[in-house]
Design goal:
Blueprint lengths: L4 H10 L3 H16 L3 H14 L1 H26 L3 H14 L3 H9 L4 H13 L2 H7 L14 H28 L4 H51 L4 H18 L1 H16 L5 H15 L5 H18 L5 H9 L7 H12 L8
């Protein structure tokens, strides 16, 4: 008799009349139409108990969506926006419920974090790396460089630096205290620093190349002018060096245009490297002495030559540059999944 009790109880549990089953199926259809996950799960639980073979797959699928969403809500309440976003997104992928939409919409306040992650990820793409790469300029003298291409790369790298800086400021102004924010902010500042240093090393390489190639020529003309000004009037000295100087000016026309455009581009883009580069450019202008003011040239040329000598010191800038560009992005897979999930549900966001 005792062995029959569980069987009798189970029979009573599942012994629903056809009309009751029809009513539950109608409740399920309405819950699906209204995208009500809780109501769907309740209806499917009863239907699965009635006909296990027919309803088990859908019941387990809906139960999984509900469990994911429950865990996502708990993570959200604990301030873990990454786990909350991933879980809510996965739940929505299984069951397009209003409950999942509600949580994802609440998480939309964190979309600026996703924008910054997207920008950092985009930096690692082959296209982006190509746009800002100075690698090939380390293998050719400045006389072979394309001025337009250099300008494009300087503009591109400074645009990225500016964009990351603005996004960092946006996140900092939100005053969000989530650990995820702090992790992304630290990495964003590191990546920005790498871009800054890449540009700086390229410009220092350029200065070194100019010094190595032209310091001797500048020094020769300068020493001649200084020595002869002690013995002759300025017009006489000018006639002595005019031919060599004009030849140098003509030979360096491309380099002069290159330096002028680089200085202008750095200034226009607001690059902080402009203040580092400008003294070199001004020294170059002084040593080229296109104005033919030899007295002024003699007074200021010594300092300009000293700067040229300083920047011409041996330094393996190419190796330093390669080390910088090979630095990987240090963001976890969960943060990347968080950003992908936010982008997939972007249509829910009020502001975007």
């Amino acid at each position: 008799m005792k062995q029959l009790l569980p069987t009798i109880f189970l029979t009573a549990l599942v012994a629903c009349t056809p009309s009751e089953i029809t009513k539950i199926e109608q409740e399920l259809a309405l819950a699906q139409q209204q995208r009500n996950l809780d109501a769907q799960l309740n209806a499917l639980k009863s239907l699965n108990e009635y006909d296990h073979n027919k309803w088990q797959a859908l019941y387990l699928e809906t139960l999984n969506a509900s469990t994911l969403l429950f865990d996502a809500h708990r993570a959200y309440e604990n301030g873990n926006i990454v786990t909350a976003q991933i879980g809510a997104g996965q739940s929505k992928g299984i069951n397009n419920s209003l409950q999942a939409d509600t949580l994802l919409r609440a998480l939309s306040i964190d979309y600026p974090l996703t924008e910054l992650i997207d920008e950092l990820v985009q930096l690692q793409t082959a296209k982006s790396k190509s746009e800002i790469s100075f690698t090939r300029f380390f293998n050719h003298p400045p006389s072979k460089w394309n001025t337009i291409e250099i300008n494009q790369k300087l503009h591109a790298i400074n645009t990225k630096i500016k964009t990351i800086t603005e996004q960092i400021e946006t996140l900092q102004n939100t005053h969000r205290q989530s650990q995820s924010y702090q992790v992304v902010l630290v990495e964003a500042k590191r990546q920005r620093g790498l871009l800054v240093e890449q540009e700086s090393i390229f410009l220092r390489h350029l200065q070194q190349q100019f010094s190595v190639l032209h310091q001797a020529q500048f020094t020769k003309i300068y020493q001649t002018v200084v020595e002869q000004l002690n013995n002759f009037d300025e017009p006489v000295v000018a006639s002595m060096v005019r031919q060599d100087q004009n030849k140098l000016i003509e030979m360096m026309q491309h380099q002069s245009e290159l330096l002028y455009n680089i200085d202008l581009m750095l200034k226009q883009t607001g690059s902080a490297r402009h203040t580092e580069f400008e003294p070199f450019y001004l020294a170059y202008i002084q040593l080229l002495n296109k104005s033919k003011d030899y007295r002024e040239y003699a007074r200021q040329g010594k300092a300009a030559l000293a700067l040229f000598e300083h920047v011409g010191a041996p330094n393996n800038f190419y190796q330093q540059y390669q080390t910088l560009v090979s630095e990987p992005l240090a963001l976890s897979d969960d943060l990347l999944a968080f950003a992908r999930s936010q982008n997939e549900s972007k249509f829910l966001y009020r502001k975007y």
